[in-house]
Amino acid sequence: MTKFWLIRHALVEENARAMLYGVMDVELCPHTLEAQAPHYALLAKALPRNATWYVTPLSRTRRTAETIMRHGYGEVPYGVEPGLIEQNLGSWQGLPHAQLPALLETPAHPFWPVSGDERPPGGESFAEMIDRVGDAMEALAAKHPDQDVVIVSHGGAIRAAVAHALGITADNALHLSVQNISLTRMERLPEGWRVVCVNTMLA
Known about the structure:
The chain has helices spanning 14-17, 30-35, 37-46, 59-73, 126-143, 155-166, 170-173; strands at 2-8, 52-55, 78-80, 148-153, 183-189, 192-200. The chain is an alpha/beta fold. It has a 6-stranded mixed sheet with strand order 3-2-4-1-5-6. Strand 5 and strand 6 form a beta hairpin. It is globular.
C-alpha cells in the first residue's frame, strides 16, 4: 500500500485572510510561523523518514514544507503536484468575504464560501475539485507503491482527498474540519482507500 501524510499549509497573513484567496499566491503569517515552532518540531519527529515529499505550485505549501524540514526533519527534495492545489475560485478571488453572498446562485455552505456544486465564474466547483484531487491521489499511489508520501497542500484539497477516499458528496465533505498544519493520514491498498485520521493536531 501507499501511505499518505497530508499536511495543510501554515496560516496565511492577515490581509489575505480577509479575502477569498483560492489559488492566489499569498504569504504566510510570520508571527504564527515563529509562535508555532514547537508544533513544527513535533511534525518533523512524527513524519516518516525516507518519504517522498510533494508540495503544490503555491509558495505557502513550499514554505510550510521547508519550515518542517528546518525544525528537525532535515532538508530533502520535493516534487510539485498541481493536481493538489486549492479550489480555483475564478473571478471571485481577491474579493472581501462580505461581497460574495450577493454573487452566489445557491446558498453558501455553512463551512465553505460556496456550496459544493456551485462553480465560480472562471473557476471550478468543489465537486469538480474532488475529481481533480482524486485523479492526482490515484496517480501518486500508482507512482509510489509501498512508499510513504508526505504532501503539504490546502484545506480544500485535503477535504477533497478524503471525499474521494470515502466516496462522499461535495457538500458532505465540506463539513470536515482541516486546520492549518494539521495532519491527515490515508492509505491506498489494493482493496481501496482507508482513512486513518483527519485533522490531527500534534501536541
